[in-house]
Amino acid sequence: MARSRDLRPGYSRRAQYGIFTGYVIAVVGIIVGLVALGLSLFDPGAFAFLRGAASEIGAPVGEASSAARRSGAGIVAAFSAYFDTGRQNLELTHEIAAARAAAISTRAVADENRRLKALLGIVDQAAPPVSAARLIGSTAASARRYAVIDAGAARGVRAGQPVRGAAGLVGRVVEVSRDTARVLLISDADNVVPVRRATDGLPGFVQGAANGKIAIRLLTMGNNPLHAGDVFVTSGSGGIYPPGIPVAVVAEARRDGAEGRLAADPAATDYVLVLPIYKGEAVAAMSASVKAAGPPPKDDN
Length: 301
Description:
Layout: H1 13-42, H2 48-120, E1 131-138, E2 146-149, E3 162-164, E4 169-176, E5 181-185, E6 192-197, E7 203-208, E8 214-218, E9 231-234, E10 246-254, E11 257-262, E12 271-274, H3 280-293
Antiparallel strand pairs: 1-2, 1-12, 2-5, 3-4, 3-12, 4-5, 6-7, 6-9, 7-8, 8-11, 9-10, 10-11
C-alpha cells in the first residue's frame, strides 16, 4: 500500500510534541543569537573569555602543526646543506687564499708608504668629519637611489659633502633641511665616482645601474685586467670625494669593465660620517686670497 502524502501529525501526541519542541528550540536559538549579536556590538569585550578559551583549546593543535613545519624545514635544510657542503668548501678555500694574498699585499704597501712618508716628511692632515649621523631611511626599491640622514644644516651639513659608512663610501648630500639631509647613493644612475684600483692605481669610475648594482668602467681601453675581488677606492679626482675610501668590489668581469658590489651597503649601514668636500676648503681659501690681492697691476708700457 502506498504511503499517504499527508504529512500532518494527526492525532499522535508524540509527533505534535516533537514539532512544538523544535519550534521552541528554534525561537530560543534566534533570541540567544540576537542577544549575543547585540552584546558583541555594544560590548566587544564581553566574549573575550570565550575567545580566550577557544584559543587555549586550539593552542596544542597550532603548536603541533608549527613543530611539524619546523621539522620539515629542518630536514630540507639538512639535505640542502649536505649537497652544498662541497661547493661551499671549495669557495671558502679560494676566498681564504685570496684573503691571505691580499693581506700580504696590504702589509707590503703599508710598509712602503711608511718608508716613503718618512723620507719625504709627509704628514697626513686629514680634515675632521663635519658630523656623525644615523641613516634613517633609503629608497631601496625605487628607480632613484636616495637615503635620509638625521643631520642637517643645524649641524653644518651642506649639499655636495661626501657621506661614508664604516665599510666605505655611501654617497653625497644633495638636499639639506634644518635637521635632515638627503643623500644620493652610489647605486644611483646619476652618481659617478672617480676611483682607482687599490693594488696598482688603475683609474676608472663607478656608476650606479638603478637596480641596486653598480658598473665599474676603466679609463683605458684594451684587454680587461679586472678580476673578481678587486677593490676600488676613491681617487680624489674631481674635488668631491677624499682619496682612499673603499667604494666597490669587482663581482664579475665584463668586456668593457666589470659588475661590482658596494663596499658599504646602505641597507646594512646604521651610522655614517658626513665629510667635508675634498679640496673644497683649499679652493675657497685660494679664491679669497685672489680677491683680497685685487687685480694685477697694469703694464704702463
